[in-house]
Amino acid sequence: MGLDHSLRTAVITGAGSGIGRATARAFLGAGWQVVLAGRREAALQETADGDARALVVPADVTRPDDVEHLFRSAAETFGRVDVLFNNAGSFGPSGSVDQVSLDDWNTTIAVNLTGTMLCAAAAVRQMKAQDPQGGRIINNGSLSAIAPRPLAAAYTATKHAVTGLTKSIDLDGRTYGISCAQIDIGNAATGLLAGITTGGALQPDGSRRVEPTFPAEEAARTVLFMAELPASANPGSVVLTAAGMPYLGRG
């Protein structure tokens, strides 16, 4: 695959399914070169669907060597990294703080927080080294970074931490033309959220409620919009929810 420096390049983690898959396809459809990362190569190849501008790099974001290989492959193939969509994540265990095992807690932190940090660090190193310098990082937070669901202590803690990481990356990246923003998505229709439209989602009063969803492609379109803003503009924090979902009234 040859280099095309006239095209922008995005790295998307968790690209094998859900929001990551929809976003990768949206970027490819908009003419970007896209590096698809995830643990399952077959799923990544399915996302790429033979597109010549898609580079599949199997990677576990919790493994530093995998992350370094991911960004090295992106730079060697496409010459630079303009955008990182830090999308890979896990819901982790269901439980209040006294119910979550230490192993489950550490696993959730490893994926949602440490994995996000490792990918952001590798992206920043690449964005500082390339000519011209600069780029944009978009972290996938969650509405739980603002208003948690019941029995989601581990997940909520990691997503609050991602918000702090997002702000720090943006502050420290100013000198190098690197901006960082976060998108907090609520109830995009993916396989992981199938339960909220069947058995219903647990509410703060202990009841279960079937909640509305919206197409994952709309989340992808929003990430693409954030990515394609000029370097002089940073969207900062974007909240995107299903219309009518119990968000503002949570808790």
From TrEMBL:
InterPro entries, sorted: KR_dom, NAD(P)-bd_dom_sf, SDR_fam
The source's superkingdom equals Bacteria
A Pfam family cross-referenced in the UniProt record is: adh_short
Q: What does the record give under GO molecular function? A: oxidoreductase activity
Ketoreductase domain boundaries: 8-178
| Key words of the record | Oxidoreductase
User: Residue span of the signal peptide, if any?
Assistant: none
What the entry lists under SUPFAM superfamilies is as follows: NAD(P)-binding Rossmann-fold domains
Give the protein family.
Answer: Belongs to the short-chain dehydrogenases/reductases (SDR) family.
Q: What is the protein name given in its UniProt record?
A: SDR family oxidoreductase
Question: What's the source species for this entry?
Answer: Arthrobacter caoxuetaonis
